[in-house]
Amino acid sequence: MLKMTRVGLAALGGWIAASLAGAAWPQEPAPQPEKPAEQVYKNIQVFKGLPNSRLLSAMFFMEGSLQVSCGHCHDWNDFSKDDKQSKRTARKMILMVEELNKTQFEGKQLVSCTTCHRGQTPPAASLPFAKVEEAAPGRPGSKDASTALPSAQELFAREVQAAGGEHAMDNIHSRVMHGTRYSSEGWSSPVEIYEQGPDKWRDSFKLKAEFVGVFDGSHGWGQDDEGVHNSDPPELERLKLDADFYRNGKLGERFLNARATGKEKVNGQDAYVVEAQTPEGDRRQLYFDVVTGLLLRIVRFDSSPFGPIPNAVDYADYRELDGVQVPFTISHLRPDYSLLDRLTKIEQNVAIDPKTFNKPIMPAKP
Questions:
Q1: Do 330 and 343 contact (CB within 8 A), yes or no?
Q2: pLDDT of residue 29
Q3: Phi, psi of 56 (to 5 degrees)
Q4: What is the pLDDT of residues 78-89, one digit of tens each?
Q5: Upper half-sphere CA count for residue 320 (Cβ side, 13 Å)
Q6: Which of 24, 120, 188, 329 has a CA that sits 20 to 30 A from residue 82's CA?
């Protein structure tokens, strides 16, 4: 059915975006209506009528739910083959999930693959043991003890001060970072990242081919082993988030209708959780270190036929640089595929050639 090559953040969420490749921005034609999946891929049976760009999101959701690779169901040499029992079983499970949501939950996406599988191939059927509470009822640490949460605006203001203050952050205008990128697929590569305020970003690394992800302030583009292409919507959202250079000093403007909802652990650290929306109305979750006040995680959600797919950006190993706190470890996390950048050298307020963010002009197709 599909054959995917997933070897870079520039390609994350956009492995079929090469089909959208075009010329430089001014010459790009208006987007054409999407074809249904069965007109683009072979042997589509249960996803007929689904826009072809959403087919991969369905695959990613199943991958993450069972923590398997494409080869669990597909023949790597011919994705359209039905030789594997797991592929035939997957079709039955998809129909079962659709039927349950339709007949029992008024069509809402309340049941999905992860409802039962929870990161493993056989469904997770065992019951957990009840936890014993050491504290007496009403005392600190018990379920009855209530702890007032700071407001979202208080957390936003605290983060600005923890990061160095608005004035110090406004004095930084560019950033060049070098380090090593690690993948959940097992590879690693040197990585270079360029940031230019207010909203330009480029990251690049090399395996057998060069992989690039760029947002130039208006458009997103990428390069992978299939060539240069425009960013698809999920990848564009990732690039815009990374490119927002002054975001941490303007959280109240970037995230609306914000409210603190509780506390959770992020990589072993206690964090306050804030639910918010972008100006476009898209849901976001932000996590702030309870002790330091620094931003630990931002989560956005991509749509799929089974429900939202969480995409998190984690920030860790903060160090003071030119009066501001800068994370030296940045992770991009998905249920099906994740990347981690360990940075070893960061320079700020360096001159960056504007051509760094230019999209190559592609030759006209014959």
A1: yes
A2: 53
A3: -65, -35
A4: 888 888 888 888
A5: 6
A6: 120
pLDDT tens digits, 180-193: 999 998 999 999 99
What confidence tier does 91 reach under pLDDT thresholds 50, 70, 90?
confident
Q: Which residues, 6+ apart, have CB-to-CB distance to 226 below 8 Å?
A: 5, 18
Torsion of CA 104, 109, 111, 112, to 10 degrees: 150
Q: Which residues, in sequence order, are bridge partners of residue 232?
A: none
Instruction: Give me the amino acid identity at 206.
Output: K
* Statement: residue 67 has pLDDT above 90: no
pLDDT tens digit string along 136-159?
A: 555 454 444 346 899 999 999 999
Residue with tokens 């208080």: 154
Name the range with the highest mean pLDDT among 28-37, 83-92, 319-328, 352-361: 319-328
What pLDDT is stored for residue 13 in this prediction?
A: 40
Q: How far is CA 264 from CA 23, 81, 128, 151, 180, in A?
A: 46, 43, 20, 16, 29
- The residue with tokens 């659709």 is 98
DSSP class of residue 250 equals G
Per-residue DSSP letters for 326-358?
EEEEEEEE-SS--EEEEEEEEEES----GGGGP
As beta bridge partners, residue 214 has 202, 221
CB atoms under 10 Å from CB of 70, counted, come to: 20
* Residues 43, 173: Cα–Cα separation, whole Å: 51
C-alpha atoms less than 13 angstroms from C-alpha of 176 in its C-beta half-sphere? 7
* Average pLDDT rounded to a whole number, residues 319-328: 96
Q: For strands 210-215 and 220-224, give the pairing.
A: antiparallel
Closest by CA to 334, choosing from 313, 315, 303, is 313
Give me the helices (H) in 232-363, please.
233-243, 251-254
pLDDT at 49: 84
Provide CB contacts within 8 A for 24, sequence distance 6+: 359, 361, 362
3 state SS of 324: strand
Beta carbons of 66 and 119 less than 8 angstroms apart = yes
The CA distance from 110 to 190, in Å, is: 41
